[in-house]
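Justification of resources, computational component.

The compute hours requested in this renewal are based largely on the per-chain cost of generating structure records like the one below. Each record pairs the submitted sequence with a full structure-token output. That output is archived, and it is also reused by downstream analysis tasks.
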Amino acid sequence: MKFTVPMLAVALGAMINAAPAAAKEGEGLKKHDVLLRVRGIWVSPNGTSDGIVPALPADRLRITDSFAPEIDVTWMATKNIGFELIAATTRHSARGTAGVTAGLGNVVDTWVLPPTVTAQYHFNSDGKVRPYMGAGLNYTVFWNAKATPALTGAVGATPVHINDSVGYALQGGVDIDLNRKFFLNIDAKYIDMNPRATLYTTALGTQTVRLRINPIIVGVGFGIRL
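The structure output for this chain reads:
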């Protein structure tokens, strides 16, 4: 299943509207609280790449989904406004979906490290059910990028380099208190991520492709007040 930004916005709006009816008064958030969360995340890239140029302009690549653990820390500047640092690393493949590379399957494997900082507004901060929305900046590093055996078998040895990516991030979620110290967390993010990959092929020479990743990241986990 593929997500879109409008779908994410509708889901987050419904979550915020429903929260007051479900919330019960509790100790809630306090200024200078530090929240540590650990989640399991599903990373679902959206869209396909541009063509591989100059040799294969009709080819398209899609980045595969991935599951991974994620950790984040939020510092509450006030009882409503927090700043969150998110860190995780996931492994993905670029898979051919059109043209010559469609017959090869996965052509590049890479690890992705996308540290993200968001500024958040926490609704119903005095309650036990606290939706939040945020926006911020993402810097993504692609590491250990390698051509697959399928690609090297077709075009020879192929070193791969993927440029770092900088983009915006949108976020929404909800914290649900289990007690004063521990809480359940559900979180969703959209990250603007469009790096350029360069493939130094033996048979075709140097090729470049703009990867349009733009993942939706959905996570569920637990948090603790430190």
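Residues 18-25 have pLDDT under 50 and may be disordered. The two ends are 36 Å apart (CA to CA).
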